[in-house]
Design a protein that fits this description.
It is built from three helices and no strands. It is an all-alpha fold. It is flat. The relative contact order is 0.06.
């Protein structure tokens, strides 16, 4: 019984890990109004693209 429980737990852990790491599926919209971005969203996208070119510093806490 313990072996069966261990196998089920391992399978659940493995499947949840695979589902969590999977990339989301790309969905296509056929509505033209949904695909057109308003000016404010376009400006926000350009701003994000400009900040993506800047270098990023990652700080890691090292105890001791």
């Amino acid at each position: 019984m313990k072996k069966l429980l261990c196998i089920v737990l391992c399978l659940t852990l493995t499947s949840s890990l695979l589902f969590a790491c999977a990339s989301p599926a790309v969905t296509e919209t056929t509505d033209t109004a949904a695909t057109e971005a308003p000016a404010s969203e376009a400006a926000a996208t350009e701003e994000l693209a400009a900040t993506a070119a800047e270098p990023v510093t990652i700080t890691i806490l090292r105890p001791g």
